[in-house]
C-alpha cells in the first residue's frame, strides 16, 4: 500500500470519526498519530511529534488574538450593546419596507464588528429582535430565519474567529484576512437588505401574518419617537469600540493582537460604565473566555499535528499533481473545492471543516496561482453557508433553542433562511470571479 493511499484512508477515517461523534481535536490527534506511526513505522516519532507540535504550535504572540477577541465579544454581549443597537436601528428603519428585518441585518452588521462569532449574534438577536418583529406582525418563522440568516455576518465581518483560524492554518496574515473580509461582509449585508425588501414586496405573505395591517402599522406616524440624544447615547459605546479596533487595525497603528487587547479593554470599560458587570458576571465571562479559547487553541495544535502527518505522507503535493494532471484550471479547482465544502457543511461544523480541508487545499490553491487571501474568503463564505443548511445548521438550531417557541419548527426556520443562502452563494461566486473584491484593500 502506497503512502498516498494510506493518506487518503486516514482522511476518510478522520471524517468517519467526526461523524460518529468523536470530538474533532481527539480525531485529529488520533489520525495524525496513527498516520505518522504507520508511515514512518516508529511510534516514538509519533509521540515526539506531539511534544514538538504542542510546544511550537501556539507559542507565537499572534495567538493571543483568540482569547482577546473572545473576551471582547463576551463583554459586549453582557453590556447589552446588541439590544441597544437593534433599538436604534428599529427606530431609524421602522418605516422602511421590511423595516425590522432590515434593522436586524443592520444591528447584526454592527454587532459582528465587535464579536466575531455568529452564534453570539444569533443568541442575542433571537431574544431582542424576534419578539419585536412578532409584535409588529411579522411571521415568527420569518423573524427567526432573519436572525439566523444575518447572524453569519459575524464570521465574515472582522474580527472573525474563522478568519483567524484560517489565517493560522494557511499561514497568511490575520490582519490581511480581516481587511479582506470587509468588502465581502458589506456586500453580504447590502444583499440581505435588498433581498428582504424585495421579498416583502413580491411575497408579503411570507413575511407578514397580515400584510395590510403590517403596512398600516409601518406607515403609522403617531407612534412615539426615540429622542436623538437617547439614540446617540445608545450608539456611542459600540461606535467608539468599532472605530478604535477596526480603525487602528486598518490604519496599521495596531497589530491584530494589539487591536484585540484594546478592544477587550474598551469593552470592559463599557460594561463597567453601564454597571452591567458584577462580580458573578465577570467570573462567568472569564470562565467562558478561558473555555472557548482553550478549546480553539487545542484544535489548532491538533490541526498542526494533522498537517505534519499530511506533509509526511506527501498528500498535498500528490493531490496537487492529480489536480494538474486532471487538467483542472484554477477556476475549476475552486468550483470543485467549493462544492466539497458546501457538502461537508451539511454534516460538519465550521471549525471542523477548516481544520480538515485547509491544510490539504491551501497548498494546492497556492500552487495553482490562487491568492490565499481570496481563497480564505471563499472558504469562509462556503463554510458560513453550512451554518444555515440542514441537517447541522448550528445557527438555525441556536435560534430555535433560544426562541423556545413550539409554534416555530426547525424546518420553518431552515425554509426562511433559504433567501439568505441565495445571497451568500451570489457573493461567493462574485469573490471567485472577481478577486479584487477580497484583495482591493490589501
Automatic annotation (TrEMBL):
Membrane topology classification: Multi-pass membrane protein
Subcellular location: Cell inner membrane
Gene Ontology MF annotations: transmembrane transporter activity
Residues annotated as transmembrane: 6-39, 60-82, 102-130, 142-166, 178-209, 235-253, 259-277, 289-307, 372-393, 413-441
Keyword Ribonucleoprotein attached: no
Cell membrane listed as a keyword: yes
Gene Ontology CC: one annotated term: plasma membrane
Key words, A-Z: Cell inner membrane, Cell membrane, Membrane, Transmembrane, Transmembrane helix, Transport
Record domain TRAP C4-dicarboxylate transport system permease DctM subunit: where: 12-436
Subunit and interaction comment: The complex comprises the extracytoplasmic solute receptor protein and the two transmembrane proteins.
Primary role: Part of the tripartite ATP-independent periplasmic (TRAP) transport system.
Family, similarity comment: Belongs to the TRAP transporter large permease family.
NCBIfam families per the UniProt record, alphabetical: dctM
Protein name per the record: TRAP transporter large permease protein
Amino acid at each position: 500500500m502506497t503512502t498516498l493511499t494510506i493518506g487518503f484512508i486516514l482522511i476518510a477515517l478522520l471524517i468517519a470519526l467526526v461523524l460518529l461523534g468523536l470530538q474533532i481535536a481527539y480525531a485529529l490527534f488520533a489520525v495524525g498519530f496513527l498516520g505518522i506511526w504507520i508511515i514512518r513505522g516508529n511510534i516514538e516519532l509519533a509521540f515526539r511529534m506531539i511534544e514538538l507540535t504542542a510546544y511550537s504550535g501556539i507559542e507565537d504572540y499572534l495567538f493571543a488574538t483568540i482569547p482577546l477577541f473572545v473576551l471582547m465579544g463576551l463583554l459586549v454581549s453582557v453590556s447589552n450593546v446588541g439590544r441597544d443597537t437593534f433599538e436604534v436601528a428599529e427606530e431609524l428603519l421602522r418605516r422602511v419596507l421590511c423595516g425590522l428585518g432590515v434593522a436586524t441585518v443592520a444591528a447584526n452588521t454592527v454587532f459582528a464588528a465587535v464579536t466575531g462569532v455568529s452564534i453570539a449574534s444569533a443568541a442575542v438577536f433571537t431574544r431582542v429582535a424576534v419578539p419585536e418583529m412578532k409584535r409588529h406582525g411579522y411571521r415568527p418563522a420569518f423573524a427567526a430565519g432573519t436572525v439566523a440568516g444575518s447572524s453569519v455576518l459575524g464570521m465574515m465581518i472582522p474580527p472573525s474567529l474563522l478568519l483567524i483560524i484560517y489565517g493560522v492554518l494557511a499561514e497568511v496574515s490575520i490582519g490581511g484576512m480581516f481587511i479582506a473580509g470587509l468588502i465581502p461582509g458589506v456586500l453580504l449585508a447590502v444583499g440581505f437588505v435588498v433581498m428582504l425588501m424585495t421579498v416583502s414586496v413580491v411575497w408579503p405573505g411570507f413575511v407578514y401574518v397580515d400584510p395590510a395591517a403590517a403596512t398600516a402599522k409601518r406607515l403609522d406616524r403617531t407612534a412615539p419617537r426615540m429622542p436623538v440624544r437617547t439614540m446617540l447615547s445608545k450608539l456611542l459605546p459600540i461606535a467608539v469600540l468599532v472605530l478604535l479596533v477596526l480603525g487602528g487595525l486598518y490604519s496599521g497603528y495596531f497589530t491584530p493582537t494589539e487591536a484585540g487587547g484594546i478592544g477587550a479593554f474598551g469593552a470592559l470599560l463599557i460594561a463597567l460604565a453601564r454597571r452591567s458587570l458584577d462580580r458573578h458576571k465577570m467570573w462567568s465571562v472569564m470562565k467562558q473566555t478561558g473555555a472557548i479559547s482553550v478549546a480553539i487553541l487545542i484544535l489548532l495544535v491538533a490541526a498542526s499535528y494533522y498537517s505534519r502527518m499530511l506533509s509526511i505522507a506527501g498528500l498535498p503535493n500528490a493531490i496537487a499533481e492529480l489536480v494538474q494532471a486532471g487538467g483542472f484550471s484554477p477556476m475549476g479547482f475552486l468550483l470543485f473545492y467549493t462544492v466539497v465544502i458546501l457538502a461537508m457543511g451539511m454534516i460538519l461544523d465550521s471549525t471542523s471543516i477548516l481544520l480538515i480541508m485547509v491544510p490539504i487545499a491551501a497548498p494546492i490553491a497556492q500552487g495553482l496561482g490562487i491568492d490565499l487571501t481570496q481563497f480564505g474568503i471563499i472558504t469562509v463564505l462556503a463554510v458560513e453557508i453550512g451554518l444555515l443548511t440542514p441537517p447541522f445548521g448550528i445557527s438555525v438550531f441556536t435560534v430555535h433553542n433560544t426562541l423556545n417557541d413550539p409554534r416555530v419548527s426547525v424546518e420553518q426556520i431552515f425554509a426562511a433562511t433559504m433567501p439568505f443562502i441565495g445571497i451568500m452563494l451570489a457573493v461567493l461566486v462574485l469573490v471567485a470571479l472577481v478577486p479584487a473584491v477580497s484583495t482591493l484593500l490589501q
